[in-house]
## 1
Amino acid sequence: MEVQERRTYTAVIGLEFHVHLATTTKMFCGCRVTYGEPPNTHTCPVCLGHPGALPVTNEKAVELGVMAGLALNCDVAERVVFARKNYFYPDLPKGYQISQYDEPICTGGHLDVLTSEGRIRVGITRLHLEEDAAKNVHVGTSGRMHGSVGSLIDFNRGGTPLMEIVTEPDIPSPEAARATANQLKEILRAVGVSEADMEKGQLRCDANVSIRNPDGSFGTKTELKNMNSFRFVERGLVRELERQREILESGGRVEQTTLHYDPETDEVHELRSKEYAHDYRYFPEPDLLPLELSPAYVRELGAQLPELPDQMLARFTRQYGLSEYDAGVLTADRDLAAFYEAVAAEVDPKQASNWISGDLRALLNETGMDISDSRVTPGHMIELIELVGSGKVSRSAARTVLGKVFETGDSPSAVVEREGLASVGSDELSGVVDEAISANPDEAERVRNGDKKVVGFLVGQVMKATRGNADGGRVRELLMEKLGS
Ligand SMILES: [Zn+2]
């Protein structure tokens, strides 16, 4: 009899990012880098590929490339050669893209990523500089090439400084891929290399994905292209892994292919049935000298690096006594981290962490907002934590207060006043506790006889009577006192 072998599937994911660098001008000419301006208003003979126009390397782009590499723990090359990547497409007027090939600016780094299953280290294979292509605008209802009546080209984007970052296939799950993309974005923003706004197309992400064979070897990988939000990176990978798993389970073979994730249908579609290795006929760019990056130059740029997310995480655990997990949650978003620090400077840092990484973040997640869009200010948070600390508002009522502050932007004390959420005073509370005892004589008797389990019921009765405006711990204490237990 054949024994069905139980197969376990392990995902193997590598990511490739294209990042617009935060320079004011383009990679090889003086045209301004712009977003959302009228088409073809920022062009010149260089970025339009006129014959005889000569490129000049943008020094700031090189600086940002080096700083990004250092922030990602890469080795910076002493000599960097630009190369021509030849291919024909309407968005590429020269017929080649200036890129870097076998002598990229940075290699061999890593970034550490906090996932729900712990910390993982994702290797960085390489980082190189290149220029972006122009933008094709497909005329028609869908906005895609398919079904459009014509294509227009906007050369404003052509020549925008671009950094390509390729990771090792070290990422074990779609969730970890999303966390990796997010961590990379935070690092790039911290260093000031890029705003890395996915909606503006400043950060684009492709993924290579396969399922490890039972013998441990790599399976056939497919490429998932152009995912334009962190959520879609995760969703697209989930769908693609499901697709590969179904193929393998039905005894089929995964074909090497390029796919596109459609968020509207939550499905992956094949773009090309077979991905041939393109022959780009790379050769060194004869119009540009190799870059010579001296160790002193690299050291100088390294000294300008600000505190990176990892370092901030370590500092949060040290300075505020937070767990690595809480510090990771707070430092995963630079704006949230700044909000936290403003609050933690005034009140107990652990309380601040509980409220911000717990309740406030839950409200942000529910509404899909960032902290910068939120009406809650650090001042509100400090006031709320002080109201709880002084016993003026119970912990549970304070949650309601935060919800209202989040909705209206009113101060916590104004909300407490308006909604009648102040804690019941101690004399009044004592009376409510007495009432609860006399209204539930059997339960009270059981507590007197040492049955502590029933106390919770009586606490519940008191909380109900005060509409939650009492401190549960204090109520329990009072009950125990009065029942001599
Ligand atoms: Zn130009």
## 2
Amino acid sequence: MTTDPQSPALEVEGLTRTYGGLTAVDDVSFVLRAHGALGVVGESGSGKSTTARMLVGLERPDAGTVRIGGTAYDAVPRGRAARLARARAVQMVFQDPYLSLDPRVRVRDSVEEVLRLHGTEGARTVRARAVELLDQVGLGPREQEALPRELSGGQRQRVAIARALAPEPDVLVLDEAVSALDVSIQAQILNLLRDIRAERQIAYLFVSHDLAVVRHVCEEVLVLNRGAVVERGDAAEVLAHPAHPYTRLLLASVPHQGWDPAAIGRARRAMSNATTTKTSQGAAQ
Ligand SMILES: Nc1ncnc2c1ncn2[C@@H]1O[C@H](COP(=O)(O)OP(=O)(O)O)[C@@H](O)[C@H]1O
Ligand SMILES: [Mg+2]
């Protein structure tokens, strides 16, 4: 597969997914530039994970296209070759690394497994490449020999990152990847992610409900409300001067000095009523 270095890492056009009567993802389009970092924010249930899952081919969209490195991919890959090609284009890191790590497989073996599957080791041995990847994510010889349960949450997330990097994907999708970690460990993983992007040709789609975390990692941000993009732009700019009422509400919902949860609750209900009225008027037409 040829990858045009000028093409965006990821181009998403009209991505839509419904569950019964619910539109979880509503006509979402965006471009993630090569080597860029785009944050996807929105409160719980806004369609962030469904979007992420469609990008990596875990979920079938009702409509829309996904292009990675200039190549169009099937909604859900069929067959081994297609699955491997998709996995080399895009990898995902989940909130809970326990779900992606086999409890019986030692850390270094689990990275070697991925390398063997993809045959990306070249002339060097799989072992040497696994050690190099694990060194890069800050795991030393003791952790490399360990089982997942013998590691801390932050260390397990480092293993998940090393495994995701192993196929050398164009895009890394991180879905709430630091949300389950203590704040101090969060900072370490975020710094690691910044270092990795500085050293490699890789782009991040960084999904998080935590606006402070997104501001730290991303240059651009996309705000989802009920599956639809309501605002997008430069991350620092959008988060400092939000234009859409929903983005303002999201920012106001973060605990801060003079915080008024009751007022936020009222504003949220007012906005949700306005949306419902608009929808029912639309349906009556
Ligand atoms: N497999 C599913 N079946 C039915 N509804 C789903 C499924 N997955 C997600 N949803 C619904 O789609 C909406 C968006 O969910 P999700 O993408 O997980 O949001 P987020 O990650 O932003 O919290 C929610 O209302 C959720 O209940
Ligand atoms: Mg989610």
